[in-house]
Structures are given as C-alpha cells and as structure tokens.
Amino acid sequence: MTDLNQLGKNAKQSAQTLALMSTEQKNDLLKQMALMLKKNQGAILEANQKDLEQATENQMSETMLDRLRLTPERIHDMAEEISKIASLEDPIGKVEQMWKNADGLLIGKKRVPLGVIGIIYESRPNVTTDAASLAFKSGNAVILRGGKEAFFSNQLLVKLLQQTLTDAGLSPYAVQFVDDTSHETAAELMKLTEYLDVLIPRGGANLIRRVKEQATVPIIETGTGNNHIYIDKDAQLTMATNIIVNAKASRPSVCNAAETLLIHSEIAPFFLPVIEKALVDHGVSLRADTRAMEYLETATLAEKADWDTEYLDYILAVKVVDSLDEAIDHINRHNTKHSEAIVTDSYQASQRFLNEVDAAAVYVNASTRFTDGAVFGFGAEIGISTQKLHARGPMGLNELTSTKYIIYGEGQIR
C-alpha cells in the first residue's frame, strides 16, 4: 500500500522550493518535459496498450476506450500542451492591486501557489501531463491518483516527468504518483489534511459524489456534464443541425458533449425528422418524450432518469418545449452546471438564455464542445469546475493560485 504520508511530506518540501523558482526555470523544465514525452513515444504507446488490453478484457465500452487510448498524434498534442503552458504568463508573484489606506500603509495583493494539490481522476492519461504541468507552472506540488484502467500509462508518464526533474538536478517530488488504485487508498488521500491544500476530483458522477461525501480536505468540484442544446423557434436550422451533431457525436465520451436536445414546438414537426437522420447517420440513438416521439421513427420513449443522465455515449435525450421559459426551467432543474447552448437568431432570446441559465459556460450559436482549457487559451486545464467558490469553468494557471496581502509601512502602529 502506498505510504501517502511520505508522499505528503515529500510534496510539502517540494512545494516550498517550487514557490521560489523563477519563471525562466519553470518554463525551461516544462519544455524539457515536452521533449521527454516525444522521445519516449514508443514506450508510452506500449504502456497504453497494456491498459487497453486490460480494459477490453473488462468489457469497457468503445466510447470509454476512446478516452483511454493514446496515439502518436495524442502524445504529440500532450507534449504541445506542455509547451503552450511554458509560453503562458506566470501568475506567481504578480501584484494585482496596490493602494494606500487611511493609515498610510501601502497594501498589495500578490498571487501565490495553493501549495500541494491532490488530484483523483479516471481514464484519460492526458490528465496526468496536463495536471502536472499546470501545477508545476503555478508553483504547486501535485500528488496524482489515476484510475486503475490507465495505471500503466499514468505510471510511465509520471516517471518521465520525474526523470526530467532529476536530470535537471531537482527533486522529483514536485510530481508524485499514487501507485495503489484501491478505494481504501483513495479514501485515505481524501483525508490527508496535514499535507494537501486542496483536492480536485476529475471523473464520472460516482467519483465526484464519493469525494464530496468522504473528503475532509478542501475540494474543488469538477463536473459531470449533463449538457443541453436548446433550438429556439428563430434558429437557423442548418446551423442547428451542425451544432447538435458536433456536440453529441464528435466525441461523446467527454464531459462537454451534449446529452439532451430541447426543441421549440413550432419547429419540431419539420426539424425533428431532419436532425434524427443526421444523428442516426452518426450512430446516435434517441430517447424522446411523448411529444417528440410523434415526429421520430427510431427513438425510444424516454424515462424520468434520462433527463438527469450523463450518457458519455452515442445516446441523446430529446424533449419538445413550448417556450424559452420552459427550456430554461428544464435546464436549470436537470443540468450539472457545466455547459449549455442556445441556437437562435433572436437577440432577446440569446440574452435571456445567457443571463438566466445557471452554468459555468453558456453558449449562443456554438457547440458545447468548446468548453476546454486549451480552447479558451489556458494552455490546458486541470478540470472544469462546476461550483462557484474559488473557481468556475475551465481551470488554468490562475485558478491554481491564491493571494496574500503584502503591506509596506513606515513605523505605523495601531
């Protein structure tokens, strides 16, 4: 069993060193990490193949295998994301405000690292490199606990990142890996309050719920994505079709994919058959309410649970609504506060949707698939926060920092 206390002690010591490293030092090491991935592409693919073989034996679905699978292109992209993070502005040490108070004290607000970050995640090996590089650039030590399905991939990726640090004469403990994937060890990590400053869970609904229930360490909740697309009566239907197909079928296993389609009743009779054909051509099956069923040939009747389900698969729930009010009400009752979209040419409808829908990312005439740290210009993301305290939406470098006040005086007393 992994000695988490020792990992915690190592991380705490490393965090103190990281917090004082210059931007130039961090950027140079990140570039070396990117090169290390590219040089070891073959070994990474071999480790990933072991994970894929085990996952196939365990009858993992094809969409989930897609989350797990690494290819030369994906490894290249992982390395490029690290390089992008090296090119981003370093938030650490930045003084965001400076003012003089009534006592003549000069008060500033300075960006500092959070300290030691724990991350519990599932399936996707790119999370390992994204999280490690974002934490490193923002001056944080990180303890990574990936899922058993990606064990060999994650283990090797962390070893390569650690080797980069060792080759540079630094402690490898800035990035550490929990090599025990048991629930008992995960539960222990959730209570490592002496060493962890924050814990970030990234995965499915069951993982998020378990962490929320068990953790005594402060957490930042990254979300499941029960995301909706609402097609308004004033929508351009060709645009709507393209957006729906992209949001559902381009990569259904990710959290920014659409799970429910809402359609205004005025356009449902002639638009539903069109969108059904487009989706079925992409392998998507539909689960519809009774009103939508009237216009669909292949759909099955939706059950109550379908409106609250993140399928992560080629399945889409479909519902007919009579108004924008009904669409917004349905979304706010059933969504997970992740990403929501409206397709409309009505400025008034778009503004109401933006103002009234409660989610981390709200779109007008665009696919929900854009909710991503790299796409937003953050280099990568450590997760997409669906809560409102500290961080919300894709979490980049700034979201992995805190602030402290720095105060200059001239002998003032109170």
From TrEMBL:
It catalyses: L-glutamate 5-semialdehyde + phosphate + NADP(+) = L-glutamyl 5-phosphate + NADPH + H(+). One of its GO terms (cellular component) is cytoplasm. Pathway: Amino-acid biosynthesis; L-proline biosynthesis; L-glutamate 5-semialdehyde from L-glutamate: step 2/2. This is Gamma-glutamyl phosphate reductase. Its EC number is 1.2.1.41. InterPro entries: Ald_DH/histidinol_DH, Ald_DH_C, Ald_DH_N, Aldehyde_DH_dom, G-glutamylP_reductase_CS, Glu-5-SA_DH, GPR_dom. Keywords: Amino-acid biosynthesis, Cytoplasm, NADP, Oxidoreductase, Proline biosynthesis. It is an enzyme of class 1 (oxidoreductase). Catalyzes the NADPH-dependent reduction of L-glutamate 5-phosphate into L-glutamate 5-semialdehyde and phosphate. The product spontaneously undergoes cyclization to form 1-pyrroline-5-carboxylate. GO terms for biological process: L-proline biosynthetic process. Pfam families: Aldedh. Residues 3-278, 315-404 form the Aldehyde dehydrogenase domain. One of its GO terms (molecular function) is NADP binding. Belongs to the gamma-glutamyl phosphate reductase family. PROSITE patterns: PROA (PS01223). The keyword RNA-binding does not apply. It is found in: Cytoplasm.
